[in-house]
């Protein structure tokens, strides 16, 4: 169990090193691992399969920033980040 967690963390670190920021700037990135219900994961996979210009990182960042904006966070940076993540034609990893 612990070895799979360590492998997941190491894989996440590699993904972070290969990721490209939406702004193409050196932003501070905080990684977290969270379990999600199967139905949510299935819905995310279906969406990502239907929208190849999105990846899981962009989807999660857009969802979290959109939620925080709806709940009253008024940061200009948050608004800019949400707008850029929603309108970007490239994936976070630049695979398009």
Polypeptide structure, described:
59% of the residues lie in helices and 0% in strands. The chain has 96 residues and is mainly alpha-helical. The longest helix is centred in the first third of the chain and has 17 residues, at 2-18. The termini are far apart.
Overview features:
single chain; 96 residues; mainly alpha; 4 helices; globular
Could you state the oligomeric state of the chains shown? single chain
Write down the Rg: 14 Å
Number of strands: 0
The major β-sheet equals: none
Number of DSSP helical runs: 4
Helix content estimate: 55-70%
Compute the separation of the termini in Å: 35 Å
Principal-axis shape: globular
Which runs of at least 5 residues are low in confidence (pLDDT < 50)? 16-25
Strand content: under 5%
Order of helices and strands: HHHH
Structural class: mainly alpha
Average pLDDT confidence is 76
Summary, kept brief:
It is built from four helices and no strands.
Topology:
Layout: H1 2-18, H2 38-50, H3 56-70, H4 76-87
């Amino acid at each position: 169990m612990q070895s799979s967690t360590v492998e997941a963390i190491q894989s996440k670190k590699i993904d972070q090193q290969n990721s490209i920021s939406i702004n193409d700037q050196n932003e501070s990135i905080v990684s977290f691992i969270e379990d999600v219900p199967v139905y949510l994961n299935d819905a995310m996979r279906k969406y990502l399969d239907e929208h190849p210009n999105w990846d899981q990182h962009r989807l999660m960042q857009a969802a979290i920033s959109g939620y925080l904006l709806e709940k009253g966070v008024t940061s200009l940076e948050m608004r800019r980040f949400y707008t850029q993540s929603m309108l970007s034609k490239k994936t976070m990893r630049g695979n398009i």
